[in-house]
Structures are given as C-alpha cells and as structure tokens.
Design goal:
Length: 136
C-alpha cells in the first residue's frame, strides 16, 4: 500500500471533480477486419514506415482516433519486430493527439531496418507530414 503523501497514480488517479482522468492515447485496433478496411483506404509512405488511414462510417465506433501497428517477418525476428512496433507506438503517442482526426483509423506498418534505425525526431516529422498528406 502506498502512503497518502505519495499521491495517487495510475488507474486510481482522480481529477479534482472526482472523475477519473481520461487518457489522450488513441484506441488500439485489434480486429483483423479493421486492419483490412484500412488497407483498402488511403496510403502514405515514409522512409521508416507506411501509413494507412481511413475515415470510419458514421455507424462505426464514432469519435475517437484508433490506431494499429504491424510489422511483418520481413522486418526481422520477434525482437526486431517488437522493437519496431515500440518505436511506432512512441511516434503515434507524440503525434496523433495533435494531428490525428476523430473518426479515423490509422495503421502504421514497420519497414525492414529503417524503422529501427531512423532517429525518432525524424520519424515524428515523417508521421506529421504523412498525416497532412492523407488529410489533404
């Protein structure tokens, strides 16, 4: 048990008005059908990843931004794929709250070597540019 002076953290953290704090993180795509729908929509390439984006129909999960991540075996072994996905999650966490649009699904696809080796600040710029192209 944590001492009261440590303050509440994580799921037990509360806002001053008594409501639980809401995360600005987008919802994660988990169903294959959602990934396939995004694959049939707009695409924008970047040096370290491919972005797929689609505007959801009004009857589909309205409101929030949703994101999915994928890396094929071409990216490397399980360690390399997981490292690439962690880097993709990091850039999405930095960019989507500001540049993502509610009601859209995004899928980031890792690329062999480039996703693991490109500097994160450059990848963030690439994602901002790719989102601007998709929404144009």
């Amino acid at each position: 048990m944590t001492p009261p002076e440590a303050g509440a953290t994580g799921a037990s953290a509360k806002v001053a008005d008594g409501l639980a704090a809401v995360s600005s993180c987008p919802e994660i795509l988990r169903k294959r059908a959602d990934f396939l729908k995004a694959a049939r929509a707009k695409r924008q390439g970047a040096p370290a990843f491919m972005l797929q984006a689609r505007k959801r129909a009004p009857e589909e999960a309205p409101g929030r931004v949703r994101i999915g991540y994928t890396c094929s075996k071409k990216v490397g072994n399980a360690v390399a794929r997981n490292r690439a996905k962690r880097r993709l999650r990091e850039i999405a966490r930095a960019v989507l709250p500001h540049h993502g649009r509610p009601g859209w699904d995004y899928v980031l696809i890792g690329r062999k070597d480039a996703t693991a080796k490109r500097p994160l600040p450059r990848m963030i710029e690439d994602l901002e540019r790719a989102l601007a192209q998709v929404h144009r």
